[in-house]
Amino acid sequence: MFKKILIANRGEIALRVVRACKEMGIATVVVHSTADANGMAVRMANESVCIGPPPSRQSYLNIPAILTAASLTGADAIHPGIGFLSENEEFARMVEEHGFTFIGPTPEHIASMGDKAVAKDTVKALGLPLIPGSPGIVKDADEGLSLAKEIGFPVLIKAVAGGGGKGMKVARSEDEFRSCFTMASSEAKAAFGNGDVYMEKYLSNPRHIEIQLLGDTHGNAVHLGERDCSIQRRHQKVIEEGPSPILTPEQRKFVGDLAASCARKMGYRGVGTMEFLFEDGKFYFLEMNTRLQVEHPITEMITGVDLVREQIMVAAGNKLPFRQEDIKFSGHAFECRINAENPATFMPSPGKITRFHAPGGLGVRMDSAIYEGYTVPSTYDSLVGKLIVHAKTREEGLMRVQRALEETIIEGIQTNIPLHERIIQEPDFRAGKFNIHWLEKMLARQKEETKKAAS
User: Fold this and answer.
1) What percent of the residues of the chain are helix, what percent strand, and what percent coil, each to the nearest 5?
2) Catalytic: which of 252, 291, 365, 400?
């Protein structure tokens, strides 16, 4: 087992890894920018190393600085956390080449799943169903238009590299196709340095279902159930839950076994998530994330499996301690992503937290690195915490989420807690009747109602 792990990340996920390591008796090193010098993960780690100024490219994306910090502190392994370099093939390869263990998949798996076009070819060969679309990268608008006519409008134009909704446009007709194609390619080029795009059929009312996977280096791979991540705004997840309220037991077993079989055939190592769109009883592979997910606590709550611990154990060469039939699912869990932002305009709201009280009680978990007096920097993602609840049933879980949101106090900055409270109260959400477009439509409806009331 590792004696010391360097954590190449920040915020709540860095703290989450520190906590797992402490419980395993493993020493930790947290690297940080000057903006995060007073971060909770920095305070809780055994050691910390400042690796640069606030801009990510000079700190959390600075591979030489991270590797130097690992060498100077005598770390055995490097945990990339979430975001930043967690799905960077070059980083994973350099970590291994410099004699450290990368706590994640192989560089080859990161590369093959990171390129969405290659990923689709890979999983198609392994038997996963795909959304009808282009066979690969679309060279130009002329080729794209010809393919779009074959696929049928509307079509979704997506960046090959990156994610988070950038480089993604919906073309609903021939007339608007060329402008959408140009905008998607230009946006992808600006955001990721790669303007390549591909296309697929745009599904009108899909659910976003993802399967948590875990594999070891001994040929074993299992799934730990699904999460429903359909509550999204601009392709960013807002509330997740597990299990999905829409799947039947047969559908749940089908997609879980399918994803686990694919991971087994790949020889996948570590944690990973296969994402699917689900519409009219059919699953379509969307992408695979070769890292820990922000919403991983949902799975931990309904299975009792510590995913970060197992991630570390697998990286150290251990076999999975359980088989598929050993994994038991219990109850229902929700996660609300709490962001430092205006709940109406969604503009970031960095600043000093003057008061903070985390919710508690049975089945309530708050994963956050903030504290009273902490200053939320303007440089990074606005996520400041994740409220996770677990209950025997979905109905009980909804009541617990509502209570926990009311109990949460974060002052000095604005947060999206009022948005979560509105979502939880919506009859369609409580009934499980929603899809990936539902939240956008709810917000548009409420905006129109507010405008009418003011006139």
Assistant:
1) 40, 25, 35
2) 291
